[in-house]
Specification:
Distance between the termini: 82 Å
CATH class of the largest domain: Alpha Beta
Structural class: alpha/beta
CATH architecture of the largest domain: 3-Layer(aba) Sandwich
Number of strands: 13
Shape: globular
Strand order of the largest sheet: 6-7-5-8-4-9-10-13
Helix content: 25-40%
Number of domains: 2
Radius of gyration: 22 Å
Strand content: 15-25%
Mean pLDDT: 86
Order of helices and strands: HEEHEEHEHEEHEHEHEEEHEHHH
Length: about 375
């Protein structure tokens, strides 16, 4: 006989292939009604998941039918994207639920490429998404989104309206200055400019604002930690030892400023030949997994090095905008789901924020 308790126990003990491995589906059951052999099951997921709704529903229905073949199941899987708690004492950004910082310890690992495609992946999964280019000195997002010559408008002469590309809102210093102009600014000026761009932009109702940070652990990163209500961070690296060494510093920085790291994304994990499809780990292998194990944070995804990814971004038409169902798009979408799903297990108290951070100053020897 089908009873509610046995149903809940089954959901708690079953691992579903289409569901994030570190979560239990039973934790997201909102309602179960059993009457006369008919079962209504409502599951509410707090992360964007359009891509897994149908496969998860089919997989769940199959498991239940095997156990209770004589019952009828009405399975509803919904998504309810919520805002997670951030540091106390940092003013929220109007209409923005969650801010996710994408960081790396060094340049050249494909962080901006990952940021753009992550933002588009979340949008394809059903979220309202914004993308902020926080690289004051070398903004690249305008080119990658195909709007390098666009300029934002201001209705009140005090704030600016974000630009839109491929279904997401975006802002960058690259939209405000000539592309040939060098930003010869000291750290405090760059940090002040970043705060203005974040807070003076009239963002629409956003579930996620992805912030593409510049490489390193300097003024921009500290400004983000102390002045912007960042929900969580994600680290992008390649399998190469040099990249991993610097990525570890980025993880340590976020630990110091009390911003949780949701996981590691290993970019350029393997090179895929555009002629024959041969795969080769030219930057080494296993680095992202080792970092994940060492720091006890999830490996969210492993992305290949492909010529098409570079060509699409140079043309301003990222992979997710070209074909949201392609193999590479599916990898980005699964990575985005893993990232945002991890937010649902934030159980630590990050309310104390970064008040106690120590900023090191180098002094020459006398």
């Amino acid at each position: 006989m089908l009873e509610q308790q046995t149903l809940i126990e089954l959901l708690g003990s079953t691992n579903f292939e289409s569901f994030p491995a570190n979560l239990k589906l039973v934790d997201f059951v909102k309602q179960t009604d059993i009457k006369d052999g008919k079962v209504e099951l409502i599951i509410q997921l707090p992360f964007p998941c359009e891509g897994l709704l149908l496969p998860l529903k089919n997989e769940l229905n199959e498991v239940l039918q095997v156990k209770w073949a004589d019952s009828q199941f009405d399975i509803q899987i919904k998504q309810n994207l919520v805002a997670y708690e951030t540091k106390a004492g940092v003013a929220p950004i109007s209409k923005v639920k969650n801010i996710i910082a994408v960081a790396s310890g060094k340049g050249g690992v494909g962080k901006s490429t990952t940021s753009v495609n992550l933002a588009l992946a979340l949008q394809k999964e059903g979220a309202k998404v914004g993308l902020l280019d926080a690289d004051i000195y070398g903004p690249s997002i305008p080119i990658m989104l195909g709007i390098p010559d666009a300029r934002p408008n201001s209705e009140d002469k005090k704030t600016i309206l974000p630009l839109k590309a491929h279904g997401i809102e975006t802002m960058s210093i690259g939209f405000l200055v000539d592309e040939k102009q060098a930003m010869v600014w000291r750290g405090p000026m760059a940090s002040s400019a970043l705060q203005q761009i974040v807070r003076d932009t009239q963002w629409g109702e956003l579930d996620y604002l992805i912030i593409d940070l510049p490489p390193g652990t300097g003024d921009i990163q500290l400004t983000m930690a102390q002045k912007i209500p960042v929900t969580a961070a994600v680290i992008v690296t390649t399998p190469q030892d040099l990249a991993l060494a610097d990525a570890k510093k980025a993880i340590t920085m976020f630990e110091k400023v009390k911003i949780p790291v949701m996981g590691v994304i290993e970019n350029m994990a393997t090179h895929i030949c555009s002629e024959c499809g041969h795969q080769e780990a030219i930057f080494g292998e296993g680095g992202g997994k080792k970092m994940s194990d060492d720091y006890d944070i999830p490996l969210l995804g492993q992305l290949p090095l492909m010529m098409s990814i570079r060509e699409q971004l140079d043309a301003g038409t990222p992979a997710l905008a070209v074909d949201a169902e392609s193999d590479i798009s599916q990898i980005y979408r699964e990575t985005a789901r893993n990232l945002t799903a991890n937010l649902s297990v934030l159980g630590k108290d990050f309310s104390k924020g970064a008040q106690g951070i120590e900023v090191s100053t180098w002094q020459p020897k006398e």
